[in-house]
Protein backbone atom coordinates (compact mmCIF):
# COMPACT_ATOMS: atom_id res chain seq x y z
CA UNK A 1 0.00 0.00 0.00
CA UNK A 2 1.12 3.39 -0.83
CA UNK A 3 3.54 4.53 1.82
CA UNK A 4 6.33 5.80 -0.45
CA UNK A 5 9.79 6.60 0.81
CA UNK A 6 11.14 9.85 -0.54
CA UNK A 7 13.05 9.03 -3.70
CA UNK A 8 12.62 11.15 -6.80
CA UNK A 9 12.77 14.91 -6.24
CA UNK A 10 11.96 17.35 -9.02
CA UNK A 11 12.17 21.09 -8.43
CA UNK A 12 9.93 23.85 -9.82
CA UNK A 13 6.34 24.79 -9.62
CA UNK A 14 2.92 24.72 -11.08
CA UNK A 15 0.75 25.12 -14.11
CA UNK A 16 -1.26 28.31 -14.58
CA UNK A 17 -4.94 28.13 -15.51
CA UNK A 18 -6.39 30.66 -17.96
CA UNK A 19 -9.29 32.72 -16.62
CA UNK A 20 -11.96 35.06 -17.92
CA UNK A 21 -13.59 37.99 -16.12
CA UNK A 22 -16.97 37.07 -14.72
CA UNK A 23 -19.44 39.26 -12.87
CA UNK A 24 -21.52 37.82 -10.03
CA UNK A 25 -24.57 36.07 -11.41
CA UNK A 26 -23.19 35.82 -14.95
CA UNK A 27 -24.12 32.21 -15.66
CA UNK A 28 -23.10 32.51 -19.31
CA UNK A 29 -19.49 31.92 -18.30
CA UNK A 30 -19.11 28.44 -19.79
CA UNK A 31 -16.00 27.49 -17.83
CA UNK A 32 -17.47 28.44 -14.46
CA UNK A 33 -17.01 25.05 -12.84
CA UNK A 34 -17.29 26.69 -9.45
CA UNK A 35 -21.04 26.82 -9.92
CA UNK A 36 -21.03 23.05 -9.31
CA UNK A 37 -19.68 23.50 -5.79
CA UNK A 38 -22.58 23.74 -3.34
CA UNK A 39 -20.61 23.80 -0.07
CA UNK A 40 -19.26 27.04 1.45
CA UNK A 41 -16.16 28.45 -0.24
CA UNK A 42 -13.83 31.26 0.90
CA UNK A 43 -14.77 34.88 0.33
CA UNK A 44 -11.73 36.31 -1.46
CA UNK A 45 -10.57 39.87 -0.86
CA UNK A 46 -8.45 41.82 -3.35
CA UNK A 47 -6.84 45.25 -3.31
CA UNK A 48 -7.73 47.21 -6.42
CA UNK A 49 -5.03 48.71 -8.65
CA UNK A 50 -2.95 51.36 -6.94
CA UNK A 51 -4.35 50.26 -3.57
CA UNK A 52 -7.30 52.53 -4.28
CA UNK A 53 -9.96 50.26 -2.85
CA UNK A 54 -11.27 46.76 -2.18
CA UNK A 55 -12.94 44.01 -4.18
CA UNK A 56 -14.59 40.74 -3.10
CA UNK A 57 -15.63 37.57 -4.87
CA UNK A 58 -16.29 33.88 -4.24
CA UNK A 59 -15.24 33.01 -7.78
CA UNK A 60 -11.58 32.08 -8.14
CA UNK A 61 -11.65 32.54 -11.90
CA UNK A 62 -12.86 36.10 -11.39
CA UNK A 63 -10.22 36.70 -8.71
CA UNK A 64 -7.46 35.42 -11.00
CA UNK A 65 -8.68 37.60 -13.85
CA UNK A 66 -8.87 40.62 -11.56
CA UNK A 67 -5.32 39.95 -10.38
CA UNK A 68 -4.12 39.83 -13.98
CA UNK A 69 -5.67 43.28 -14.43
CA UNK A 70 -3.75 44.86 -11.58
CA UNK A 71 -5.59 43.82 -8.44
CA UNK A 72 -3.78 41.88 -5.73
CA UNK A 73 -5.21 38.99 -3.73
CA UNK A 74 -5.07 39.59 0.02
CA UNK A 75 -4.54 36.63 2.28
CA UNK A 76 -7.27 37.63 4.68
CA UNK A 77 -9.67 35.20 6.35
CA UNK A 78 -13.15 36.67 6.00
CA UNK A 79 -15.23 33.51 6.10
CA UNK A 80 -16.93 30.92 3.90
CA UNK A 81 -20.14 31.58 1.96
CA UNK A 82 -22.20 29.62 -0.52
CA UNK A 83 -22.63 30.60 -4.15
CA UNK A 84 -26.21 29.28 -4.16
CA UNK A 85 -29.21 30.11 -1.95
CA UNK A 86 -30.03 27.67 0.83
CA UNK A 87 -32.70 27.33 3.48
CA UNK A 88 -32.44 30.30 5.83
CA UNK A 89 -30.02 32.21 3.60
CA UNK A 90 -29.83 35.82 2.52
CA UNK A 91 -28.00 37.22 -0.50
CA UNK A 92 -25.01 39.54 -0.31
CA UNK A 93 -24.74 42.07 -3.13
CA UNK A 94 -21.62 43.63 -4.61
CA UNK A 95 -21.75 47.32 -5.49
CA UNK A 96 -19.14 49.11 -7.59
CA UNK A 97 -18.27 52.73 -6.88
CA UNK A 98 -18.05 54.53 -10.22
CA UNK A 99 -15.88 57.44 -9.08
CA UNK A 100 -12.93 55.27 -8.01
CA UNK A 101 -11.85 51.63 -8.28
CA UNK A 102 -13.48 50.32 -5.12
CA UNK A 103 -16.51 48.30 -4.05
CA UNK A 104 -18.77 47.63 -1.10
CA UNK A 105 -20.96 44.71 -0.08
CA UNK A 106 -24.54 44.92 1.13
CA UNK A 107 -27.16 42.53 2.50
CA UNK A 108 -29.91 44.89 1.31
CA UNK A 109 -31.41 44.64 -2.16
CA UNK A 110 -33.05 47.99 -1.55
CA UNK A 111 -29.71 49.63 -0.79
CA UNK A 112 -28.16 48.03 -3.86
CA UNK A 113 -30.97 49.29 -6.12
CA UNK A 114 -31.05 52.75 -4.55
CA UNK A 115 -27.33 53.27 -4.97
CA UNK A 116 -27.51 51.95 -8.52
CA UNK A 117 -30.26 54.44 -9.39
CA UNK A 118 -28.27 57.33 -7.88
CA UNK A 119 -25.89 57.25 -10.83
CA UNK A 120 -22.74 56.93 -8.74
CA UNK A 121 -22.82 53.18 -8.23
CA UNK A 122 -23.34 49.97 -10.15
CA UNK A 123 -25.27 47.21 -8.38
CA UNK A 124 -23.44 44.27 -9.94
CA UNK A 125 -25.51 41.48 -8.41
CA UNK A 126 -25.25 38.73 -5.84
CA UNK A 127 -21.75 37.72 -4.80
CA UNK A 128 -22.87 34.92 -2.47
CA UNK A 129 -25.20 33.80 0.29
CA UNK A 130 -24.86 33.94 4.08
CA UNK A 131 -27.17 32.62 6.78
CA UNK A 132 -29.76 35.17 7.90
CA UNK A 133 -29.54 33.95 11.51
CA UNK A 134 -26.77 32.29 13.46
CA UNK A 135 -26.22 28.60 12.69
CA UNK A 136 -23.85 26.17 14.43
CA UNK A 137 -20.27 27.09 13.63
CA UNK A 138 -21.06 30.53 12.16
CA UNK A 139 -20.13 34.07 13.22
CA UNK A 140 -21.49 37.38 12.02
CA UNK A 141 -19.84 39.21 9.13
CA UNK A 142 -19.95 43.01 9.08
CA UNK A 143 -19.49 45.94 6.77
CA UNK A 144 -17.42 48.69 8.36
CA UNK A 145 -16.34 52.13 7.14
CA UNK A 146 -13.85 54.80 8.14
CA UNK A 147 -15.46 57.45 5.96
CA UNK A 148 -13.21 56.86 2.95
CA UNK A 149 -13.52 53.12 2.34
CA UNK A 150 -15.66 50.12 3.20
CA UNK A 151 -14.26 46.90 4.61
CA UNK A 152 -15.68 43.43 5.18
CA UNK A 153 -14.89 42.41 8.75
CA UNK A 154 -15.42 39.12 10.65
CA UNK A 155 -16.86 39.40 14.15
CA UNK A 156 -13.52 38.35 15.66
CA UNK A 157 -11.81 41.39 14.07
CA UNK A 158 -14.51 44.00 14.68
CA UNK A 159 -12.97 45.40 17.86
CA UNK A 160 -9.58 45.80 16.16
CA UNK A 161 -11.16 47.69 13.25
CA UNK A 162 -13.11 49.89 15.66
CA UNK A 163 -9.84 50.77 17.40
CA UNK A 164 -8.45 51.86 14.01
CA UNK A 165 -11.31 54.32 13.49
CA UNK A 166 -13.83 52.22 11.58
CA UNK A 167 -17.51 52.26 12.47
CA UNK A 168 -19.94 49.41 12.03
CA UNK A 169 -21.96 50.02 8.88
CA UNK A 170 -24.31 47.05 9.10
CA UNK A 171 -24.39 43.24 9.21
CA UNK A 172 -23.90 41.07 6.14
CA UNK A 173 -25.09 37.78 7.63
CA UNK A 174 -23.62 34.76 9.36
CA UNK A 175 -20.74 32.84 7.79
CA UNK A 176 -18.31 30.08 8.75
CA UNK A 177 -15.00 31.56 9.95
CA UNK A 178 -13.37 28.21 9.07
CA UNK A 179 -14.72 25.44 6.89
CA UNK A 180 -12.18 22.67 6.45
CA UNK A 181 -12.77 19.96 3.89
CA UNK A 182 -11.43 16.87 5.62
CA UNK A 183 -11.31 13.41 4.13
CA UNK A 184 -9.53 10.12 4.58
CA UNK A 185 -7.63 7.77 2.32
CA UNK A 186 -9.59 4.54 1.83
CA UNK A 187 -7.84 1.23 1.19
CA UNK A 188 -10.53 -0.68 -0.68
CA UNK A 189 -8.98 -4.15 -0.77
CA UNK A 190 -10.43 -5.92 2.26
CA UNK A 191 -12.31 -8.40 0.11
CA UNK A 192 -11.90 -11.65 -1.81
CA UNK A 193 -10.56 -9.81 -4.87
CA UNK A 194 -7.90 -8.04 -2.82
CA UNK A 195 -4.19 -8.78 -2.57
CA UNK A 196 -3.95 -12.48 -3.45
CA UNK A 197 -0.24 -12.58 -2.70
CA UNK A 198 -0.84 -11.37 0.85
CA UNK A 199 -3.63 -13.93 1.33
CA UNK A 200 -1.34 -16.70 0.07
CA UNK A 201 1.22 -15.72 2.70
CA UNK A 202 -1.51 -15.65 5.35
CA UNK A 203 -2.35 -19.22 4.35
CA UNK A 204 1.31 -20.20 4.59
CA UNK A 205 1.94 -18.51 7.96
CA UNK A 206 -1.38 -18.78 9.76
CA UNK A 207 -3.04 -21.67 7.90
CA UNK A 208 -6.21 -19.83 6.87
CA UNK A 209 -7.59 -19.62 3.34
CA UNK A 210 -8.82 -16.37 1.82
CA UNK A 211 -8.24 -14.25 4.92
CA UNK A 212 -7.60 -10.66 3.88
CA UNK A 213 -7.47 -9.68 7.56
CA UNK A 214 -4.57 -12.05 8.27
CA UNK A 215 -1.91 -10.50 10.51
CA UNK A 216 -4.26 -7.79 11.76
CA UNK A 217 -6.63 -10.19 13.51
CA UNK A 218 -3.68 -12.28 14.73
CA UNK A 219 -2.01 -9.32 16.44
CA UNK A 220 -5.37 -8.37 17.96
CA UNK A 221 -6.08 -11.97 18.95
CA UNK A 222 -9.71 -11.63 17.95
CA UNK A 223 -11.34 -14.90 16.91
CA UNK A 224 -7.94 -16.52 16.36
CA UNK A 225 -5.02 -17.41 18.65
CA UNK A 226 -3.08 -14.26 19.50
CA UNK A 227 0.26 -14.04 17.69
CA UNK A 228 2.20 -10.82 18.20
CA UNK A 229 5.53 -12.26 17.14
CA UNK A 230 8.31 -10.22 18.78
CA UNK A 231 5.97 -7.98 20.79
CA UNK A 232 3.83 -10.30 22.97
CA UNK A 233 3.25 -7.66 25.69
CA UNK A 234 2.24 -4.82 23.37
CA UNK A 235 -1.44 -3.87 23.24
CA UNK A 236 -2.78 -4.34 19.71
CA UNK A 237 -6.45 -4.52 20.69
CA UNK A 238 -7.15 -1.47 18.53
CA UNK A 239 -6.65 -3.69 15.46
CA UNK A 240 -10.30 -4.65 15.25
CA UNK A 241 -12.86 -2.37 13.59
CA UNK A 242 -15.92 -1.54 15.67
CA UNK A 243 -18.06 -3.04 12.90
CA UNK A 244 -15.98 -6.22 12.93
CA UNK A 245 -13.64 -7.65 10.30
CA UNK A 246 -15.54 -6.74 7.18
CA UNK A 247 -15.84 -7.33 3.46
CA UNK A 248 -15.58 -3.95 1.75
CA UNK A 249 -17.13 -5.28 -1.45
CA UNK A 250 -20.48 -5.14 0.35
CA UNK A 251 -22.36 -1.82 0.07
CA UNK A 252 -23.69 -2.39 3.60
CA UNK A 253 -20.10 -2.12 4.88
CA UNK A 254 -19.59 1.19 3.14
CA UNK A 255 -22.92 2.46 4.41
CA UNK A 256 -21.77 1.95 8.00
CA UNK A 257 -18.44 3.62 7.27
CA UNK A 258 -20.05 6.57 5.47
CA UNK A 259 -22.37 7.06 8.44
CA UNK A 260 -19.50 7.04 10.94
CA UNK A 261 -17.30 9.34 8.88
CA UNK A 262 -19.93 11.87 7.83
CA UNK A 263 -21.42 12.15 11.33
CA UNK A 264 -17.97 13.27 12.52
CA UNK A 265 -17.79 15.90 9.79
CA UNK A 266 -15.60 14.13 7.22
CA UNK A 267 -16.64 15.14 3.74
CA UNK A 268 -14.87 12.68 1.42
CA UNK A 269 -13.03 9.41 0.97
CA UNK A 270 -10.05 9.25 -1.39
CA UNK A 271 -9.76 5.73 -2.82
CA UNK A 272 -6.46 4.22 -3.88
CA UNK A 273 -6.81 3.32 -7.54
CA UNK A 274 -4.62 0.68 -9.21
CA UNK A 275 -4.03 -0.50 -12.75
CA UNK A 276 -3.18 -4.06 -13.84
CA UNK A 277 -1.65 -4.17 -17.36
CA UNK A 278 -2.50 -7.86 -17.90
CA UNK A 279 -4.83 -8.67 -20.78
CA UNK A 280 -4.70 -5.19 -22.25
CA UNK A 281 -5.08 -3.41 -18.92
CA UNK A 282 -7.90 -2.85 -16.41
CA UNK A 283 -8.60 -1.44 -12.96
CA UNK A 284 -7.39 -3.49 -10.01
CA UNK A 285 -8.53 -3.67 -6.36
CA UNK A 286 -11.69 -1.60 -6.89
CA UNK A 287 -14.30 -3.56 -4.93
CA UNK A 288 -14.39 -1.06 -2.05
CA UNK A 289 -14.75 1.86 -4.45
CA UNK A 290 -17.55 0.16 -6.36
CA UNK A 291 -19.32 -0.65 -3.08
CA UNK A 292 -19.12 3.03 -2.12
CA UNK A 293 -20.86 3.96 -5.37
CA UNK A 294 -23.63 1.46 -4.58
CA UNK A 295 -24.11 2.58 -0.96
CA UNK A 296 -27.58 3.93 -0.24
CA UNK A 297 -26.11 6.91 1.65
CA UNK A 298 -23.27 7.70 -0.76
CA UNK A 299 -24.57 11.25 -1.23
CA UNK A 300 -23.51 12.00 2.36
CA UNK A 301 -19.88 12.12 1.24
CA UNK A 302 -17.84 13.02 -1.81
CA UNK A 303 -15.06 10.83 -3.16
CA UNK A 304 -11.99 11.00 -5.37
CA UNK A 305 -9.58 8.50 -6.89
CA UNK A 306 -5.86 8.38 -6.19
CA UNK A 307 -3.95 6.56 -8.95
CA UNK A 308 -1.14 4.47 -7.44
CA UNK A 309 0.91 3.47 -10.47
CA UNK A 310 3.63 1.50 -8.78
CA UNK A 311 6.82 0.06 -10.29
CA UNK A 312 6.29 -3.23 -8.44
CA UNK A 313 3.92 -6.19 -8.36
CA UNK A 314 1.81 -7.91 -5.72
CA UNK A 315 2.91 -11.44 -6.45
CA UNK A 316 2.10 -12.00 -10.12
CA UNK A 317 -0.13 -8.89 -10.32
CA UNK A 318 1.79 -6.00 -11.84
CA UNK A 319 0.67 -2.51 -10.81
CA UNK A 320 2.49 -0.46 -13.44
CA UNK A 321 0.95 1.47 -16.34
CA UNK A 322 2.59 0.80 -19.73
CA UNK A 323 2.77 3.78 -22.04
CA UNK A 324 0.50 2.14 -24.61
CA UNK A 325 -2.27 1.83 -21.98
CA UNK A 326 -2.19 5.43 -20.73
CA UNK A 327 -5.16 6.56 -22.82
CA UNK A 328 -7.21 3.55 -21.73
CA UNK A 329 -6.48 4.18 -18.05
CA UNK A 330 -7.35 7.87 -18.34
CA UNK A 331 -10.59 7.08 -20.15
CA UNK A 332 -11.51 4.54 -17.47
CA UNK A 333 -11.12 7.16 -14.73
CA UNK A 334 -13.14 9.70 -16.71
CA UNK A 335 -15.90 7.28 -17.72
CA UNK A 336 -16.34 5.60 -14.35
CA UNK A 337 -15.77 8.37 -11.83
CA UNK A 338 -15.36 11.98 -12.97
CA UNK A 339 -19.00 12.26 -14.01
CA UNK A 340 -20.35 11.00 -10.69
CA UNK A 341 -22.48 13.65 -8.92
CA UNK A 342 -20.49 13.42 -5.69
CA UNK A 343 -17.01 13.40 -7.19
CA UNK A 344 -14.76 15.66 -5.10
CA UNK A 345 -14.20 19.20 -6.38
CA UNK A 346 -11.77 21.92 -5.36
CA UNK A 347 -13.11 25.26 -4.18
CA UNK A 348 -12.87 26.52 -7.76
CA UNK A 349 -14.97 23.60 -9.02
CA UNK A 350 -12.28 21.49 -10.65
CA UNK A 351 -12.61 17.72 -10.08
CA UNK A 352 -9.58 16.58 -8.10
CA UNK A 353 -7.24 13.68 -8.83
CA UNK A 354 -4.48 13.00 -6.32
CA UNK A 355 -1.71 10.87 -7.84
CA UNK A 356 -0.07 8.60 -5.30
CA UNK A 357 2.77 7.20 -7.42
CA UNK A 358 4.08 7.90 -10.92
CA UNK A 359 7.14 5.66 -10.87
CA UNK A 360 5.21 2.82 -12.50
CA UNK A 361 4.20 4.85 -15.56
CA UNK A 362 6.00 4.02 -18.79
CA UNK A 363 9.67 3.23 -18.19
CA UNK A 364 9.74 4.47 -14.59
CA UNK A 365 11.57 2.50 -11.90
CA UNK A 366 11.66 2.45 -8.11
CA UNK A 367 14.21 5.27 -8.18
CA UNK A 368 13.23 7.27 -11.26
CA UNK A 369 10.19 8.71 -13.02
CA UNK A 370 9.51 8.60 -16.75
CA UNK A 371 8.66 12.31 -16.97
CA UNK A 372 7.46 12.18 -20.57
CA UNK A 373 5.09 9.27 -19.95
CA UNK A 374 3.84 10.88 -16.74
CA UNK A 375 3.02 14.08 -18.64
CA UNK A 376 1.21 11.97 -21.22
CA UNK A 377 -0.91 10.52 -18.41
CA UNK A 378 -1.87 13.90 -16.91
CA UNK A 379 -2.55 15.25 -20.42
CA UNK A 380 -4.74 12.25 -21.19
CA UNK A 381 -6.75 12.78 -17.99
CA UNK A 382 -7.32 16.43 -18.89
CA UNK A 383 -8.28 15.57 -22.46
CA UNK A 384 -10.86 13.03 -21.32
CA UNK A 385 -12.32 15.48 -18.78
CA UNK A 386 -12.61 18.22 -21.39
CA UNK A 387 -14.03 15.95 -24.08
CA UNK A 388 -16.58 14.21 -21.84
CA UNK A 389 -17.56 16.95 -19.41
CA UNK A 390 -16.14 20.24 -20.67
CA UNK A 391 -14.12 20.59 -17.49
CA UNK A 392 -10.57 21.15 -16.34
CA UNK A 393 -9.02 19.09 -13.55
CA UNK A 394 -6.91 19.84 -10.51
CA UNK A 395 -4.21 17.14 -10.43
CA UNK A 396 -1.76 16.93 -7.55
CA UNK A 397 1.27 14.74 -6.90
CA UNK A 398 2.33 12.84 -3.79
CA UNK A 399 4.78 14.98 -1.82
CA UNK A 400 7.01 11.92 -1.35
CA UNK A 401 7.96 12.35 -5.02
CA UNK A 402 9.00 15.98 -4.57
CA UNK A 403 7.71 19.32 -5.83
CA UNK A 404 6.23 18.79 -9.31
CA UNK A 405 8.10 20.47 -12.13
CA UNK A 406 6.29 23.19 -14.05
CA UNK A 407 6.03 21.09 -17.21
CA UNK A 408 4.99 17.90 -15.41
CA UNK A 409 1.25 18.38 -15.80
CA UNK A 410 0.60 18.69 -12.06
CA UNK A 411 -1.10 21.68 -10.45
CA UNK A 412 0.39 21.16 -7.02
CA UNK A 413 1.06 18.65 -4.28
CA UNK A 414 -0.79 16.48 -1.81
CA UNK A 415 0.88 14.82 1.14
CA UNK A 416 -0.51 11.56 2.47
CA UNK A 417 0.92 8.68 4.52
CA UNK A 418 4.01 9.87 6.38
CA UNK A 419 6.48 8.11 8.63
CA UNK A 420 8.99 10.17 10.61
CA UNK A 421 12.34 8.38 10.63
CA UNK A 422 13.03 9.78 14.11
CA UNK A 423 10.54 7.12 15.25
CA UNK A 424 8.85 9.78 17.40
CA UNK A 425 5.25 10.74 16.70
CA UNK A 426 5.74 13.87 18.82
CA UNK A 427 8.64 14.88 16.57
CA UNK A 428 6.43 14.28 13.54
CA UNK A 429 3.62 16.41 14.98
CA UNK A 430 5.94 19.23 16.04
CA UNK A 431 7.57 19.47 12.61
CA UNK A 432 4.56 19.11 10.33
CA UNK A 433 4.29 22.82 9.54
CA UNK A 434 7.99 22.96 8.64
CA UNK A 435 7.36 19.99 6.36
CA UNK A 436 4.49 21.81 4.63
CA UNK A 437 6.82 24.74 3.96
CA UNK A 438 8.87 22.54 1.62
CA UNK A 439 6.02 22.56 -0.91
CA UNK A 440 5.21 25.99 -2.34
CA UNK A 441 1.98 26.89 -4.08
CA UNK A 442 -1.05 24.63 -4.14
CA UNK A 443 -0.88 22.06 -1.33
CA UNK A 444 -3.46 19.60 -0.07
CA UNK A 445 -2.35 19.22 3.54
CA UNK A 446 -2.25 15.90 5.34
CA UNK A 447 -2.21 14.32 8.76
CA UNK A 448 -1.15 10.73 9.47
CA UNK A 449 -3.01 9.10 12.34
CA UNK A 450 -0.12 6.74 12.94
CA UNK A 451 2.15 4.20 11.33
CA UNK A 452 2.86 0.64 12.45
CA UNK A 453 3.54 -2.10 9.92
CA UNK A 454 4.35 -4.86 12.45
CA UNK A 455 1.12 -6.76 11.57
CA UNK A 456 2.78 -7.43 8.20
CA UNK A 457 5.39 -9.60 9.89
CA UNK A 458 5.83 -12.80 7.92
CA UNK A 459 3.11 -12.05 5.38
CA UNK A 460 4.41 -8.92 3.64
CA UNK A 461 7.67 -8.18 5.47
CA UNK A 462 10.27 -10.89 5.98
CA UNK A 463 10.69 -11.73 9.64
CA UNK A 464 14.27 -11.05 10.80
CA UNK A 465 14.35 -14.21 12.94
CA UNK A 466 13.27 -15.42 16.35
CA UNK A 467 16.36 -13.98 18.04
CA UNK A 468 16.30 -10.64 16.25
CA UNK A 469 17.74 -7.72 18.21
CA UNK A 470 15.82 -4.50 18.75
CA UNK A 471 18.08 -2.87 16.19
CA UNK A 472 17.22 -5.55 13.63
CA UNK A 473 13.50 -5.19 14.37
CA UNK A 474 13.67 -1.43 13.93
CA UNK A 475 15.48 -1.93 10.63
CA UNK A 476 12.66 -4.16 9.37
CA UNK A 477 9.56 -2.48 10.79
CA UNK A 478 8.28 1.04 11.32
CA UNK A 479 6.33 2.15 14.40
CA UNK A 480 6.17 4.88 17.03
CA UNK A 481 6.65 3.98 20.69
CA UNK A 482 5.28 7.39 21.73
CA UNK A 483 2.14 7.38 19.59
CA UNK A 484 -1.07 8.53 21.27
CA UNK A 485 -4.38 10.03 20.23
CA UNK A 486 -3.52 13.14 22.26
CA UNK A 487 -0.40 13.61 20.15
CA UNK A 488 -2.53 13.07 17.06
CA UNK A 489 -4.62 15.97 18.36
CA UNK A 490 -1.47 18.09 18.60
CA UNK A 491 -0.69 17.25 14.98
CA UNK A 492 -4.19 18.28 13.89
CA UNK A 493 -3.93 21.57 15.80
CA UNK A 494 -0.68 22.30 13.95
CA UNK A 495 -2.36 21.54 10.63
CA UNK A 496 -5.18 23.95 11.47
CA UNK A 497 -2.69 26.63 12.52
CA UNK A 498 -0.98 26.28 9.16
CA UNK A 499 -4.30 26.72 7.34
CA UNK A 500 -5.16 29.77 9.45
CA UNK A 501 -1.85 31.46 8.63
CA UNK A 502 -1.74 30.44 4.98
CA UNK A 503 -1.00 32.63 1.99
CA UNK A 504 -1.37 29.77 -0.51
CA UNK A 505 -3.74 29.72 -3.50
CA UNK A 506 -7.28 29.13 -2.23
CA UNK A 507 -8.36 26.20 -4.43
CA UNK A 508 -7.58 23.51 -1.82
CA UNK A 509 -6.14 25.63 0.99
CA UNK A 510 -8.74 24.38 3.47
CA UNK A 511 -8.47 20.70 2.43
CA UNK A 512 -6.93 18.08 4.71
CA UNK A 513 -6.27 14.48 3.69
CA UNK A 514 -5.98 12.09 6.63
CA UNK A 515 -3.99 8.88 6.44
CA UNK A 516 -5.99 6.75 6.63
CA UNK A 517 -9.49 5.43 7.12
CA UNK A 518 -8.48 1.79 7.10
CA UNK A 519 -4.80 1.05 6.51
CA UNK A 520 -5.08 -1.63 9.17
CA UNK A 521 -1.91 -3.49 8.17
CA UNK A 522 0.09 -0.25 8.42
CA UNK A 523 -1.35 1.26 11.60
CA UNK A 524 -3.00 4.19 9.84
CA UNK A 525 -6.66 3.88 10.81
CA UNK A 526 -9.13 6.49 12.04
CA UNK A 527 -12.05 4.12 11.48
CA UNK A 528 -13.71 3.39 14.85
CA UNK A 529 -12.10 0.41 16.57
CA UNK A 530 -12.97 -1.86 19.48
CA UNK A 531 -10.42 -0.32 21.87
CA UNK A 532 -10.59 3.41 21.09
CA UNK A 533 -14.08 3.71 19.67
CA UNK A 534 -14.49 7.03 17.85
CA UNK A 535 -11.51 8.72 19.51
CA UNK A 536 -9.65 9.47 16.26
CA UNK A 537 -12.75 10.92 14.60
CA UNK A 538 -13.57 12.93 17.72
CA UNK A 539 -10.07 14.45 17.68
CA UNK A 540 -10.42 15.36 14.01
CA UNK A 541 -13.84 16.90 14.55
CA UNK A 542 -12.68 18.95 17.54
CA UNK A 543 -9.31 20.15 16.27
CA UNK A 544 -10.44 20.96 12.70
CA UNK A 545 -13.78 22.48 13.76
CA UNK A 546 -15.94 20.11 11.75
CA UNK A 547 -19.71 20.11 11.83
CA UNK A 548 -21.75 16.97 12.43
CA UNK A 549 -23.63 15.18 15.16
CA UNK A 550 -20.52 13.25 16.21
CA UNK A 551 -19.45 9.68 15.56
CA UNK A 552 -21.10 6.86 17.46
CA UNK A 553 -19.18 3.60 17.13
UniProtKB/TrEMBL annotation:
Residues 54-175 form the DUF5648 domain. It comes from the Bacteria. Transmembrane segments: none annotated. Signal peptide: none annotated. Pfam families: DUF5648 (PF18885), Glyco_tran_WbsX (PF14307). This is DUF5648 domain-containing protein. It comes from Actinoallomurus iriomotensis.
Amino acid sequence: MPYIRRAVVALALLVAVAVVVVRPGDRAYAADQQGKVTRPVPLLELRTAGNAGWFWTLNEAEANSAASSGMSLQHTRLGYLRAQPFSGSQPIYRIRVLAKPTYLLSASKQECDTLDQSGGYDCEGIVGYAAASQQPGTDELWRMSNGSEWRVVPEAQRAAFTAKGYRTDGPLGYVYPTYDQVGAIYFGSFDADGNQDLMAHVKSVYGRDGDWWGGVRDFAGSGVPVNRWHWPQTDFSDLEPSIGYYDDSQPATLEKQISAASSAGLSYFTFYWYWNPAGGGAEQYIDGLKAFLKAANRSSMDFSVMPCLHPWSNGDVSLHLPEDQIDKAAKTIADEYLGQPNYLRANDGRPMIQVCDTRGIGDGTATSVDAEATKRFTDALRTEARNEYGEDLLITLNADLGVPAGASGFDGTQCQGQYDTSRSFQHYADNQRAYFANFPGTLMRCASSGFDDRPRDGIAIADPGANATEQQLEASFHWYDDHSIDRFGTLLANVQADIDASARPPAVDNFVLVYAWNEWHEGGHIEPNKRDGCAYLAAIQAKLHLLGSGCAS
